[in-house]
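User: Fold this; tokens only.

Assistant: Input:
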Amino acid sequence: MADRPFKVLGFEQVAIGGLDKQKMRELWIDTLGFGLHETHRMESENVDEDILYAGKGLLQTELNLMQPIDPEKKPKVHEPALNHIGLWVDDIHAAVAWLTAQGVRFTPGGIRRGAAGHDVCFIHPKGNESAPIGGCGVLIELIQAPDDVRAAFAAMAG
């Protein structure tokens, strides 16, 4: 697979879901000291989400605390509790095209604008007959890295 037309640069985020965002806040903000950056409520994604940060600068990582708006509707952002991991990629369009050709299954919705303003798409946790490669039980978000993040990773690589 050396002809891969994109690079995974690093982790952009980890998302944790639960039915009680206040309890998650008590752990991650009050107890562990993460700072609350912003909150988003997205009806289309059935999520009330807090965005926290670890680290500094261009290489900081997001921690998303996600509570479903309606626990009975999909997507069920609280099942599983480790909802998804997010990976910075240098070229999301090349990544999706190449991964699709390799048999990777993506969730419906394609590439779209995420809550933080970056283009995103999701690899389905499970493969199926037509696209047998999935996330082995983990939802994986691919996030288009902006120019400054790509430059920071390139500088770090030497």
